[in-house]
Amino acid sequence: LFRSPPEIQKAINEALEEAKAFDLELRTKFQTKAINQLLEAGSVYYQPPADVVEQMRVLGATSAYRSWIKDCVDAGISRELAEKVLNRYIELNKQYDKESNWKSIAEEIKEIQAK
């Protein structure tokens, strides 16, 4: 893939860390508020079984990834480069998920209801 000069890469890395922190702050603030409003209004949260959730995630991601690759190829980008970028994106998302302390909606609802 592409390599940036060290000073630019440093700025990118710092900006990414700042963006991750801000994203987490916004998600936490607004997700919690929305969940509380829905529960207070009498809503019920249904969590499908884990295997169903995983099947939906894989099917949705596969379709979206195929579409993105096609759009790249249609725009004149080589399939090989598009797949490399996509694979790196997937890798970084997995890394973010491992490092993040963000709670899923299901996790947060369980905590709220336990109080």
Task: Give structural notes.
The structure is a single chain. With 115 residues, the protein is mainly alpha-helical. The chain has helices at 6-40, 50-74, 79-99, 105-114. The longest helix is centred in the N-terminal third of the chain and has 35 residues, at 6-40. The radius of gyration is 19 Å and the shape is extended.
Per-chain topology:
Blueprint: H1 6-40, H2 50-74, H3 79-99, H4 105-114
Helix pairs in contact: 1-4, 2-3
Brief rundown of the structure:
The protein has 115 residues and is mostly helical.
Mean pLDDT: 83
Secondary-structure-based class equals: mainly alpha
- Rounded to the nearest angstrom, the radius of gyration is 19 Å
Helical residue percent band: over 70%
Number of strands: 0
The coarse silhouette is extended
Determine the N-to-C terminus distance.
48 Å
Instruction: Provide a count of the helices.
Output: 4
Low-confidence stretches: none
Reported for the largest beta sheet, the result is:
none
Strand content: under 5%
Notable traits:
mainly alpha, extended, 115 residues, 4 helices
